[in-house]
Amino acid sequence: MKLPFPRTDAPKPKVATTEDRMTLIEHLAELRTRIIRSLLAVVIGIIVVLAFYSPILEFLREPYYRLCDKNAELTCDLQFISPLEGFSTRLQVSTYGGILLALPVLLWQVWQFVVPALHAKEKKYAIPFIGACIALFALGAFLAYWTLEKALEFLIAWAGENVEANFRVGEYIRLVGMMVAAFGIAFQFPVLLVGLQLIGVLTPQTLLKGWRYAIMTCFVIAAVITPSGDPFSMLALALPMSVFFFLSVLIGWIVQRSRRKRDAAAA
Question: How far apart are CA 94 and CA 55, in angstroms?
Answer without folding.
Answer: 12
